[in-house]
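Handover notes (outgoing to incoming on-call)

Open items:
1. Flagellar basal body rod protein FlgB: sequence verified, structure written out, both below. Nothing else pending on this one.
2. Nothing else urgent.
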Amino acid sequence: MDLGNLGLFKLMSRKMDWLTQRQEVLSQNIANADTPDFKGRDLKPFSFRDALGDNRRLTPASTNPAHLAGTRGPGGTAKEERVRDPYETAPDGNNVVLEDQMMRMSQNSMDYQTITNLYKKQVAMIKSAIRSGS
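Flagellar basal body rod protein FlgB structure tokens:
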């Protein structure tokens, strides 16, 4: 039985791959924190909707003129607000802030540990089902 073919395990593997790549990008940012004109980078946030390949946008259909339009955007989701980066660029042109990078690395590490624990629990559950089913 190849667990990589199961949907949940595929999704967890993709998230772990993304977290690994993000760790590399963040470590490059930290390594170049004193390099003049270096611009910090980050990956596009991991979206489960994109990972599932569900790019369909369902819009509600008004079947009665008395229905309210609602306050959500198209597809039933609220619009995301972009938070501006409050940090300024250093006089040498470098915009890497070590505290911010370390917080991102810490969050990345916690996310990776969470996915790893979820993976372990799912494997244990499958093993338990196999043992009890035979």
